[in-house]
Amino acid sequence: MIAKRHQWRGFTLLEVLVAFVIAALALTLLIRTFSSGLRLTSTVEEYGKATILAQSLMAQVGVEYQPHDSPVDGVFIQRFDWSVNINPYTMDAELPDDEPALMTYKCEVVISWNEGSKRRHYELSTLRLMNHE
After folding, report:
1. What is the pTM of this model?
2. Contact (CB, 8 A) for 108 and 124
């Protein structure tokens, strides 16, 4: 008689456990990546809002905000602290002795906000010609 060998098909318990551990690690990495992406999306959205607010405030310099008003600050939608600073800009070149009708001013807008435990800020600055007062 010829002895028949039994061949067992399937996975051992050890193989199944190793497969579950690998799957759990992969899933953990995917979840971390996804949550990091959501956090970054939120940060980018806040910087976008700050940029729009800063551009809006800069557009008001010379119209709403004059050099004698500087510095001006406030809070926007109870989230963003902002300040506008308008200071005379001096150049190294010699200017005529008579009072110029227009002067160059350095205009700075700073927006800051809290994001979790971090304090974020966005700054925008430019030079602008305005009437000398």
Report:
1. 0.64
2. yes
